Amino acid sequence: MTAAWSAQVAASLAAWATVGWMVRILIDPRSSLVAPVRRAITWLDSRTAIRIVQVMAAVALVLSVGVGFKQYQLTGCIARYNEANNISQRARSEAADLDRQAQDQLFRAISDDPQHAFDRLRQYNDTRAEADAQRARNPIPAPPSETCG
Predict the structure, then answer these.
(1) How far apart are CA 97 and CA 6, in angstroms?
(2) pLDDT digit string (tens) for 79-116?
(3) pTM for the complete prediction?
(4) Cys-Cys crosslink for 146: which of 48, 128, 132, 142, Cβ 3.0 to 4.6 Å?
(5) Rounded distance, CA 74 to CA 86, Å?
């Protein structure tokens, strides 16, 4: 027998004991708790209790609509962030590809024709500058924790 199973059995026994106690109170007319329980039931059937429940339901409905609206706004904000981040990452990935291609060309040029290596190095630096400019034009957007409030 495990501790979890023992706890489950104890909780089940406690629940059934509570149900039995409640049934005895409602059925046994000699119980000292019958009068208060009947008064409570009578009050719960009153117009005041019904109005209180109706007001609570209306408040819960308004709150749930408000929470739903805020969730809708947050979802839209996160979708806009994801789209902006996708565009930025795509452009930055293209810039990284340019860097790698330029570096590969530089290494090939140095190994194939060391005499013209400085020309290739200048070309590599120009390509790197283009890639850096592309990264600067496409910054990583601010995270949703800053922009979505």
Answers:
(1) 62
(2) 999 999 999 999 999 999 988 998 998 888 888 888 87
(3) 0.56
(4) 142
(5) 18
